[in-house]
Amino acid sequence: MKASAPDQETHIHEHHAAIAKRLKRANGHLGSVIEMIENNRPCLDIAQQLHAVEKAISQAKRTLIQDHLDHCLEETVGALPRDQRKPIDEFKEITKYL
Fold first, then answer.
1. Domain residues for 59?
2. I want to staple 80 with a disulfide (CB 3.0 to 4.6 A). Which of 2, 58, 84, 86 is the partner?
């Protein structure tokens, strides 16, 4: 994992605590999946649990990106008239499909 560059500001966003909680839960589920494999559990059960872990991580990533955009993009562009906000709002909206 890469460390943050020393000159970058540390940003604590609104959803960081919830993201960390979700990832800790996914980490616990992943440990369970490893045990399932070691205990020769049925592949269907393992695949279902892996799918749940994958979804949790994907949702955490999506929330992190949207949180970052909501905070940092707004901070960067500042207050804009409604007619100039459309590209920013569309950009933020499309990230939901990451």
1. 16-97
2. 84
Cβ–Cβ under 8 Å, residues 34 and 70? no
Q: Which of 79, 63, 80 is nearest to 13 (CA)?
A: 63
Residue 8 is assigned to a structural domain of this protein: no
Q: What CATH number is associated with residue 61?
A: 1.20.58.1000
Question: Does 78 fall in a domain?
Answer: yes
Q: What are phi and psi of 52, to 5 degrees?
A: -65, -40
User: Residues 2-35: pLDDT tens digits?
Assistant: 444 444 556 566 788 889 999 999 999 999 999 9
Global confidence as pTM? 0.69
- The DSSP code sequence of 9-70 is PP---TTHHHHHHHHHHHHHHHHHHHHHHHTT--HHHHHHHHHHHHHHHHHHHHHHHHHHII
Read off the pLDDT of residues 42-58 as tens digits, 9 standing for 90 and up.
999 999 999 999 999 99
